[in-house]
Structures are given as structure tokens and as C-alpha cells.
Amino acid sequence: MDQFLIKNRVLGVDISMERTTYAIVDVRGNIIAQDYFNTLDYPNVNEYISVLVDKVIELTELNGGYDTIRSMGVSCPSANFLTGSIENAANMPWKGVVPMAAMLRDRLGMAVAVGNDAHVSALGEHVFGLAHGMNNFVVISLGHGIGSCIFSQGRPHLGAEGFAGEFGHTCVIPEGRQCGCGNKGCLETYCAERGIVTTAHELMQDSNEPSLMRQQERLTPRIIFECCEQGDAMAQEVFRRTGRTLGFSLASLASVIDPEAFIFTGGIAKAGHWLLDSAREVFEEHVFHNIQGRVKFLRSTFNDRERDVLGASVLAWGIKEYSLFK
Amino acid sequence: MDQFLIKNRVLGVDISMERTTYAIVDVRGNIIAQDYFNTLDYPNVNEYISVLVDKVIELTELNGGYDTIRSMGVSCPSANFLTGSIENAANMPWKGVVPMAAMLRDRLGMAVAVGNDAHVSALGEHVFGLAHGMNNFVVISLGHGIGSCIFSQGRPHLGAEGFAGEFGHTCVIPEGRQCGCGNKGCLETYCAERGIVTTAHELMQDSNEPSLMRQQERLTPRIIFECCEQGDAMAQEVFRRTGRTLGFSLASLASVIDPEAFIFTGGIAKAGHWLLDSAREVFEEHVFHNIQGRVKFLRSTFNDRERDVLGASVLAWGIKEYSLFK
Amino acid sequence: MDQFLIKNRVLGVDISMERTTYAIVDVRGNIIAQDYFNTLDYPNVNEYISVLVDKVIELTELNGGYDTIRSMGVSCPSANFLTGSIENAANMPWKGVVPMAAMLRDRLGMAVAVGNDAHVSALGEHVFGLAHGMNNFVVISLGHGIGSCIFSQGRPHLGAEGFAGEFGHTCVIPEGRQCGCGNKGCLETYCAERGIVTTAHELMQDSNEPSLMRQQERLTPRIIFECCEQGDAMAQEVFRRTGRTLGFSLASLASVIDPEAFIFTGGIAKAGHWLLDSAREVFEEHVFHNIQGRVKFLRSTFNDRERDVLGASVLAWGIKEYSLFK
Amino acid sequence: MDQFLIKNRVLGVDISMERTTYAIVDVRGNIIAQDYFNTLDYPNVNEYISVLVDKVIELTELNGGYDTIRSMGVSCPSANFLTGSIENAANMPWKGVVPMAAMLRDRLGMAVAVGNDAHVSALGEHVFGLAHGMNNFVVISLGHGIGSCIFSQGRPHLGAEGFAGEFGHTCVIPEGRQCGCGNKGCLETYCAERGIVTTAHELMQDSNEPSLMRQQERLTPRIIFECCEQGDAMAQEVFRRTGRTLGFSLASLASVIDPEAFIFTGGIAKAGHWLLDSAREVFEEHVFHNIQGRVKFLRSTFNDRERDVLGASVLAWGIKEYSLFK
Questions:
Q1: Contacts of D258 in chain C (CB under 8 A)
Q2: Which of A15, B78, B167, C217 has a 20 to 30 Å separation from C16 between CA atoms?
Q3: pTM score, two decimals?
Q4: ipTM of this predicted complex?
Q5: Which of C4, C28, C133 minimises the CB distance to A29?
């Protein structure tokens, strides 16, 4: 009976530009231990991997031992689950194709899976969050960029090559604002962080109305949100316009997908009703009639980092166990 | 051994406004027998069902017997597989919600499934056509309206309530042409039959250029196509514009879905390269870069009616066998 | 945003002959509130259902309200998930076919699913227990009877009509002991509760060796286990024989199924190594060579009632939400 | 439009000890071209692979070209789909682990999958044969050995490591006949080819009754079958006993699996009612009561080789397309 050790914990890692959070997570999504370091301290990817492996092993040794860990899941922008690689990440320090799952597996001696943030967020919401019990829903992550993950029939739709989900790069304004991806008019250029700030500056330039925003040294969505909360009409208009653009795009998506819910994650989602009320209004105007009034607009109740660590743990449970050392 | 009769055939029915085609189909998609009648001869749905049941039973009795038939699948505009009903079909004579699967099952004494045309077409392409071996692809049906069916992970994505696929009602031109659905600027108002004819009339009005189209009593996409083939520049411009609008919408869809292929069905798809070359050109301009050059644009090689009868047979095989009489 | 109430709890009910345990369970398997009553107090099934509904509603009203509950899952011997019915339960007071899911749904106004104990146990182990991360495993429940549930490709194998899992009624000794099912030599007649006691009596009759078992007024597997722990050789022989018979049957099952693990639940599993060491020994002798040494023998780490309430909650999350009152 | 070539054919290969059959198969299971060679002419596996690749390429060049071929599927005894290898095949000339899928892929430049005969037969029956429309059934292959493949929920159950299906090595007579696998009393030693012949010899030795079998120089199941057909009572008794043993084992399997049907393939299945009537009789006596009378016993209507070539083509369509040369 006792000759088989059950490895009942996994590692969940959330890599963002700012920080790398790594945690030991159990079957029920309890975070047993967690720590983090600054991602940008290690711009060389080989060095980064070495540091991550060392830190992770240290954490396991302090918390039950390496032998209790079944596998590792990693959330990282531009990661492709199907290839295990991070591919041309616009917002990360490592260029080109980084075979992160293979690099980590070889050094850790256990199975490793990677997924992009929207994919991992969707897994986290499905197993531990608002999407529990839903088979068809869409996670929309609103931050530096805009990502999405469609759950179809209880599983994430990753696409033929694992590239699905680029909702942020669907064109909303032909010949509109220039996007970092090379195209023009991408949703991201209006509804992600920089797009919102751009809209704020345009509004300030186009009128002489007073606004709390004019007094800020440097505008961010968070500061614009605070202006909204203080009753600033122009700040509210920023989110209202953003929401209208977002709602218009969501309507097209919902007419094709018929989801049970949209779940909004990421920093911009914190703008809450300032953004989502107008998004919903335009959404209902444009969505096909048999879907009207049916799609839930939900803001994730997780802290973003917690959800992504938990989502990464779901990724880890989903792959086949493997051990170099048995 | 011989006490069990294997029912190795199914019924496939394709209902369109013009005609109802019904066939006996075997495991490999051979059409054993087939006939049709005019759908509009029976505007009362109860009468229609009675006639269909009578004709179908007669066909089975002439071709191996009722006892060899396992189940029935039905393709019908606005049919919802999950509810078994036809729901507020814009283009059919029967109003409201028609529980067609239940009505047919009760009278035929066997299991019956219904699906809308894009859903059924996608099943037909997946099992017997160009999508065989593909897990992630999209069927786009171009006719009176524009429907779509996304295959995700080898199965059709039907949505939370079975309403997925309304690609024709995604908005391409805010405040654009009035659509029958109540909204404005739907893709359908530009790229389905009437939209294309409207574009042709607009082009004729906006210029004094000569065109073969000006000599036609009544324009249809088919006639415009024939003008294209005869070298008419303005007719070619009709499809070029149509294709550009379509390609723009397909780019957004592909950036989110990452399909292996788009498969085009329906009468408009017959316009072929006049439509699809410009669609593809605009598609490649607007789709997210990691998907560029990867998505196949394919025209269904089936006759539409054959595909839908075969697709309906796939629907029939997919449901649980049931017999009132055993 | 706030117009959509997310129902983030379910009801999990575990019905056994002795008691009915009902609980409110959240997304992560936390039991929010729990109570029980004696099943046999209500031998009339209509009365039983009424009482269960009243008690469950009362529990919800004391703990967050009926409106927070999404659906209900029920574990019950002989329940068939596919039909929603309890069918000819040998060990329950209600005879014939009881459409329990429909009866509960109609009175509660929410979606209800039922499953037999092995099915529900397997769900509990898969989501919250030892089988987390396993796609192919078998739960073996050892108690009054012997049930099983095979997980295949991450989902429970229920069979064509929902009757899969009767491992206890596979014949191990042709023309062996008479089983309550009508057949002879069923595994259950050797390795379930009464079978083990029968084996003990046979051993006592067949020898004059002293044994602590001889001093017992009434033998049960638990008492035999306690005799084992006190070093009683004959009691140890009871479990050794039981284990050999069990191991032989498990070898056949594993050669066909190739599971990652067997997970043992139920009262008999508490006999632990007295039973499972010999089971494993015979198993390894008889299983096909390429499976030897690979299949884990694991004893569930849950309390049986906790696991079944949690497993029932998994059943509840897996069905489509439905509300009579919205 | 035309820049994408659709590869609408696959290669299906069936390797048995006697011969290797290779064919080009289209989407609907039409065999476009087919040829074979003697497997044992190439006992060195590298040479065998080279010859197979050469012959296959030649066949494609004569029939539409290499460029029309999407992928290859291979049926081979002891092949493991999950690893792509043939593992310790008892009945093949190549010893140890042969990574056949990888070897063929590297030389052919296209995707290759392998599967064992029961797995491939089950795919063939599911897509093109008696199991079309069934989600839960079991193929039992009766020949040199006895293999099985359980379809669960529409997909083959391969087991945790791909080793599922060793029904022939489940023990039916403890301490019974010695099996080539090292164990005793395996089903195969009674119901596969040599086992049947052994039973015939035992019957002849145990009595003085006359029998046509006594006049045969060398007994085979086929010859025993012919004696049955000529009314020989002892030959009939051989299959009756074989059937009783088989039926007993099938009852245990069905009580656990609840299949819709058993489909019998392989040379022994040709014995038909001489074998299967008694199998069914014992089956119904021993299977759990709620499954009695429900499980169909069906003999495959395919020629074995045709089914395995078609099943191999299903394997080929199921894997991701890959080309070394694009």
C-alpha cells in the first residue's frame, strides 16, 4: 500500500513583466507557500530559468519536499500551450521563441506546461472561480493588452496552432490608431491601458472643460478611475467611450459564440461599472436578438495574481506526470 | 447471433424555403434513395410534418424497410440542436417556436435531431468533406443569410443555448445598412444575397460606366457572377467590395479562433475567386501576425443539397437510438 | 454588472440505508453547512422526498439563502445518472424504479442529478482526492456490496445504459456461494461484508485453532479487523483469503483497463494492509506483464461520508443550471 | 483559393505475421489502391521499414502522387498508440521496443500513428462498420491471441499507458493451461487458436467416440469448423466448450462495462453460431441482471484485412497533419 507516494501538490507560476510569482498549490487550490522576484532582474532567459528553478526548489524543500510535487504550470504572456514555448512576446524581455516548458522540465525533472494569461485565467475561473459549472464562457483580460480565452464544451479553445484568443487585435476602427502589432485600429489601441490614456488625452485636447485629469502628472487607468470616483465628468467619459468600443466588439463575439458569461480580469476591469455599464449597453444594442439579455457580464472576484497562480496549478494537474528521477 | 437487427441506415432531411429533400443514407454516406417536395406547399406546420412523415415512411418501405432505419437528422434554417426546435425562423413559413424534433419523433417512432444549416454543413464537411481530419475549422455559409459553425476540438461549438454562429449579424459598419434582424450594419446586409445586389445597384447609380449588369431585368448574385465571367469590370467590383467586407470580418474571427481553415458553402461561394481573392487579401492585411498565411480558404466541393443531406445523416448517427416499437 | 446573481454553491446529498447526509458545498469543496437524518424513518418514498426537500430548504435558508444554490447532486445506491432514477435498489427501502432526480427537481425548482455511490465517490476522488490529475483510474467501493467506477480519459465510464460498474457481481468461483443477485460465486459473496463474515465462520468451523473471533457474539469485518490488530492468526487469514480473491479479480480488470490506480473506499477498505497486501501480491502474480508493478493501490484518505457529499457536489456542478423561479 | 492543396487521402497499413497490406484510402473509406508483401521476408526491422517505405511511396506515385497523402496509420500486433512503438511483440519477428511511428515518420516525411489490431479494428467498426453510431461497445478479436478494445463515450479506452485490452490474458482457470505470457489459465489458452486445438485433442483423448477430427493430419480451428458443419458432434463440442469459457469471461466484462454490443473479429469468429450460441447462453446466465438481454453479440461483417486497413486509415486521420517537405 505505502510503496506508492502520491504527489498531491503542484507548482503554479505566474510570470508578468513586473514580477514572477511562484507557489505550491494543493488539490483544492490552497496556496501552501508562495514567493516572488522581479522578472526584469534576469533579462537573459537562461539565467532567468536557472534562478526560477533554484528558487522553486528551495521553496519546495522548505515546504514538504520536492517529492510531494507532481508537476508545474506556468502562466506567461504569449505562451503557447501546444508548443510549450513563449513566442515573440511583445511585452517580455526575452525575444524570439523560448521553449520554456522544455527548459524547465529538463532542469526540474518534472512535467511542465505553459499557457498564456487569458488561457490560464480561464482555467482558474473554471475550476476555482465564477465560471465553475459553466461549459461555454469567455474570459476577457484587460491590461497592457487585451487577451481572451473561449471555453467551448468545458474546455479551452486554443485554436489549430494554439494562437486563438487575440481579441485585442480584432480591428474596431478601420485605419484607426496604430497598434504595436503592425495593424491599425485594433481593439487594444482603444481599450487597453495605453489606449485609454490616449482617449483621455484626446478628450482633454478636444475641449476646454475642466477635469481633475488635467492636474495629473502622469495619467493611468487607475488615476482616471479615481477621477471618476470623485465625480469627474470627463474621466467618466473616458471609460464610457472605452466601454462603448469594448461593448461593440463583445457583441460581435457573443453573436458568434453564444457564451453564458464574459468574465473580465486584469487591471482595467477594476474600473468596474464606469467601464462595464456602457459596454453592456452597447453590447445589448448590437448583439443578435436571441442572445440579448442572456450573457452575464462578470468581474473576476480574484486578485489577478492569485487567480493566475491557481490557474497555473490547473495547467499543472492537466498534464501527464513525469519524473526524471524515478 | 441473429436476434439483433442492426439498423445500418439513417434518414437525412434538408429543409430549405424552396424544397425539402429527404434521403436514406448508409454508414459511409452513400445515398440509397432520395426524393423531395416543395416546402411552401405546406405553410401549416402540422400538415407539413404529416406530409414529411408520410413521404419518408413511403421511401423507407420502398428501400429496405422502416426497420433498417436507426434515426433521423434534419437540417433547417434557425433550428437549434439543443432544444430540438426551430426558433423564430426569419426565412421559413412557420412562425414562433416549432418543436420539430419532438413532433417528428412522436410520429415516426424513432430518434430525431435537428440542426441549423451551418451546423449541419459543418458536420457534413467534417465527416465526408474537406474538413475530414480537421479539429478546428469554421464553415461559413453564404446565401440568403450568412451563417457559421465553429468546430472546436473536433466538435461543433453550439454555444450556451445553442445559438452560436450568427456571424452574419456581427456589425461591420456602425449605423450601416438596415438588417432584417433589427440592427444596422450587419455583415449580412453587405455579403449575403440581397446585400450583394444592393451593392451592385449602388455602384450602378454612383457612376456612368457601362456595365452588363445594367441590361438585366433582375439582378442576382448568379447573374452578377456571369457578368464577371464575361469581363464586366463593375460586376467584378461588386464582388471585390463584398470580398473586402467579408475578409475584414473573417480576420477578426480568425484572430480569436485560429482555425485551420474557412470552408465556404452556399450559393454566394460559387462566385469563387471573384469574391474570395479580395476576401483573402484583406484578411491577410488584418489578421493577427502569428495567424497570417496559415488559414486555408476552401470552397466546399459538395453540391449544397448533397452536403446537407449527408450532414443531417451525421446528426442522426450522433443521437441515441430509440424506438417506439420495440 | 450586478444584475446577475452568481449561484456559487450547490447541495450535495449522500443517501445510505443508515442515514441521509445533506450539505451546502462551495466551489472549492468547503462544506458550508451539513446535517443528516435517518433514512429508514421514511420508508414511503414520497414522504422521504418531502422531508428531504423541507430539510434542505431549511438548511439553505439558514445559510445564505435558497438563491445562492445552483443545483443539487445526490449519491444513492443503485442510482443511474443517465435516467435520474434509482432502479431496483437491493439495499434501500424503496422498491422498483424511483425517478428521484425528477421528483426532487420538481419540488426544489432546481436542477438535480443522481449517481450511484461508486460513481459519486470517483467524482469526489477525481476533483478533491487522490485521483486529482489522473485520467484513467478505478474506484472500488468495499462495503455491504462491491461497486466500481472506471474513469476513462478523464470522465466516468457509465456504460451504454448507465449500468456499468457491477464489479461485485463478476463471478470468481463458478458455482460458488449464492449471491443475492440470483447468481452464484459473485465477488461480493467473498469480499463484501457478509462474505468476509462467512469466510470467518468457515475458517472457525474447519479447524480447532484458537481465535479471538470465537469469543465474539456477532462478527463484523470491523471486529475481525480488531482481532487482526491484536495478532489473531485466524482473523488475519480471513483478510488474507479475502484479499487473494479480490486481487485475482483486480488483475483481470487491470489487464483490460490499464488503470493508473485502484482507489479503495468503503468500510472494508479500512482493513488496510491485512486485506490489501495479499490482494496486491496475487494481483501482481496474475496481471499481464506489461502492467505489472505499475498500478497504484490506494486507500481513500477521505471519510466516506465527506467524500460522497463532495462527490455529489461535483455531480451538481456538472449539470446545466435550471431554475423554476426565474 | 487554390494555393492550398487539400490532402484528401491517407495510407492505411495492416501488419500481421503473414503479410503486410498497404493501401491508399480516401475520406469515405474507399480503397483507391492496395498491395501487400510477406512480412517475414524482412526479419530485420530496419530493412522492413525501408522496404515498406519504398513500396508505399511507389504506390502513391502510381495513384495520384505523394502530395495527395495526408498521413499514415498502421495496425500492428502489440503496437502502443500512446508511445508509437511496438513493444515486445510475442508474435512478430522484431524483438524489444521498435519505435515504428517515429521510424516511419522520419523516412516518409509525414505524420504516422500506430495501434494494435483490436484498437484499429474498433476504429474501423466505429467509423465504417457495425459500431457506427455506438458510443460504448467492445471489439473482441479472436485469432492467434485474443485482444479487445473498449470504446467509452465514443472514444477508444487505451489505458493509462496505452496497454489496455489484454482480455486474452485475464485468468479464467486458476492454475490452468500454461500461457505464453508466463501466467497460467489465461483466456487465450482456451479460446484462441492453439487453445481450441488443445481442447479438441483433449476431447479426442478422453473418449472413444468417433469424430471426423481424428482423420485430420493437422487440426486448425478452420478444420474443426468444417467438421462442425458436417455434423460432427465432437467438433461441435469443441466450440461449445470454447464458447462457454468465452461467454463466462464476457459476462464479467459486461457487468463492469455495460456495452451496447460485443463485436467479434478474427479468424475464430468465423466459427459463428457454433461458438457464439453457447457463449451467449453462458453469458446471459452470468451477467448481472440489469444487463441481461441487452448486449448485442455481433460478428464483424468486414473481411479482417479490409477492416484493419480502413481502421488504420481512421488512425491516420486522427493525428495532426505534418509534413517534412513544406
A1: 158-165
A2: C217
A3: 0.95
A4: 0.95
A5: C28
